[in-house]
Design goal:
Elements (H helix, E strand, L loop, with lengths): L4 H4 L4 E4 L2 E4 L13 H13 L1 H9 L3 H27 L3 H6 L1 H24 L2
Antiparallel strand pairs: 1-2
Helix pairs in contact: 2-3, 2-4, 4-6
């Protein structure tokens, strides 16, 4: 039996009944740790931007893209929390004097910073 064009180019095929199906494999993608921000971005892309999601997935760039988004989001979140805490006077002395007030104000700051990160990086 003569070889298919795909086999002539170095590919392999598997016979299923009367059909020859090419054995296609994506190259291995680097294993990266993806945090909560990257997972949220992945879910958003899957639901709302499927073309971009599948383009990144088939180009084997999805994990590196999500790891980069996760790193950027974490840096922005930390910077925002620090800046807001300084501007609002939430300090270690307040924590020592009134831990409940400090906790409430820090939760408020973290929630606002989380919303900013979501709007700027994750859901845009």
């Amino acid at each position: 039996m003569e070889k298919t064009v795909f086999e002539q180019m170095g590919g392999t095929c598997t016979r299923l009944g009367d059909y020859l199906l090419p054995d296609l494999m994506l190259p291995a993608e680097e294993e990266l740790t993806i945090g909560i921000w990257g997972q949220r971005r992945r879910q958003y892309l899957k639901e709302h931007h499927r073309i971009l999601y599948y383009n990144l997935l088939t180009a084997c760039k999805l994990n590196s893209y999500l790891a980069d988004i996760d790193r950027q989001a974490e840096e922005l979140f930390s910077r925002l929390v620090k800046q807001m805490a300084e501007s609002e006077g939430v300090t270690e002395t307040l924590k020592a004097q009134d831990s409940m007030a400090w906790s409430g104000r820090m939760n408020n700051i973290c929630n606002r910073a989380r919303e900013i990160v979501n709007i700027e990086l994750i859901y845009s």
